[in-house]
Automatic annotation (TrEMBL):
TM stretches of this protein: none
Name of the molecule in the record: 2-keto-3-deoxy-L-rhamnonate aldolase
EC numbers: 4.1.2.53
Coiled coil: none
Length: 341
């Protein structure tokens, strides 16, 4: 049997949005706005400087289902080149490329393109189109077929909310974790019992299979039960704060650090309600308003118009956002802009 592939580094991974040209651009197309590669690169470099472990490209936040497969490698290659030029060559700030197709063949093709464009791992969404009649055996066979042919190690992306509510049993994760080219999972269902049955399972070699929560609002409890970190949308606009919370969760802490950890988790959990309420438009709005990158309404159909409610709705979130921004500013000396890590 071949040696296991390496799992992705522990820590905070940012599932980056895909930036599209704004309405003010001469290249704007209301039906299919083109990529804004400059904004994409600027955002990625800022996250790398803030200390995230890596970037997930074309996940749910990245509107993977709104991007034609032929265009994915263009953005991935541009992103890898810009990170390399800024001094973040692999293994610094690696890339994980998402897939969201139901076909084994197309999934493998996307992973092959991702590998050629500079991605180190693939994050494969559980196929859910035929959820009512998909068996656990079928899921095992699907991921095994993908992993057998993928040129890069893959992770299982379990997000019932976008997979027709298909459910993956903990025993299925145990079976798939034995495959040398399946090296982890992202769990975005919010079910802590199921998460623990995977992250604590004695049937899984956790040095080769890393379990990430997809919910920053659960980072502290998830880390206490052997999670490797989080792949969390709020890391796009509060990356230093999420990295700090992860660090505080990693080992023995002083009394003051324990107090800081619980207070920071509370603030993160309150702030994450913005994403729960507004999803991708909320993330893009926050990145635009807080970090000055991209256009808050720069999505692709069927998403359009940005976060509903505009300035009035944004004002409702300023209380929790300002408390988070206080932490982000306080942490700036730890991750100064432009500093080499």
């Amino acid at each position: 049997m071949p040696l296991p592939s390496p799992p992705p580094p522990r820590g905070i991974w940012a599932p980056v949005p895909t930036f599209f040209a704004s309405k003010s651009s001469s290249r704007y197309n209301a039906v299919t706005p083109p990529f804004d590669l400059d904004a994409q690169g600027q955002h990625a470099i800022g996250l790398a400087r803030a200390g995230v472990s890596g970037l997930v490209v074309f996940g749910s936040t990245g509107e993977a289902v709104h991007v034609h497969p032929r265009d994915r490698k263009v953005l991935l290659r541009s992103l890898r080149n810009r990170l390399d030029q800024a001094g973040f060559k692999f293994p610094r700030c690696p890339l994980m490329a998402g897939t969201a197709t139901n076909s084994v063949q197309e999934t493998v093709e996307q992973l092959e393109d991702a590998q050629r464009a500079g991605a180190q791992w693939g994050l494969c969404l559980v196929p859910g189109y035929n959820a009512p009649v998909v068996s656990q055996e079928g899921i095992v066979m699907w991921f095994t077929a993908v992993a057998n042919s993928s040129p890069i190690p893959i992770l299982i992306y379990h997000y019932p909310g976008v997979s027709n509510n298909v459910q993956v049993a903990p025993s299925t994760f145990e079976a798939l974790a034995r495959h040398p080219n399946i090296v982890g999972c992202k769990l975005s269902h919010g079910d802590m019992s199921k998460l623990m049955q995977i992250s604590l399972s004695p049937a899984i070699n956790h040095s080769n299979f890393h379990v990430f929560t997809g919910l920053g609002q659960q980072l502290l409890p998830a880390m206490t039960v052997n999670c490797a970190g989080a792949i969390d949308g709020s890391a796009n606009f509060f990356p230093k704060s999420l990295v700090r919370l992860y660090t505080l969760c990693c080992g023995p802490q002083s009394f003051d650090e324990k107090s800081e950890r619980t207070q920071l988790q509370y603030r993160v959990s309150c702030m994450e309600e913005l994403i729960v309420t507004h999803g991708i438009p909320g993330i893009k709005e926050a990145v635009s308003r807080l970090r000055g990158i991209g256009d808050g309404d720069g999505t692709r159909l069927p998403l359009f118009g940005g976060m509903p409610g505009g300035d009035e709705e944004w004002a409702k979130w300023l209380g929790v956002l300002n408390k988070m921004e206080e932490v982000e500013v306080r942490l700036s000396p730890v991750f100064p802009e432009g500093a080499e890590m």
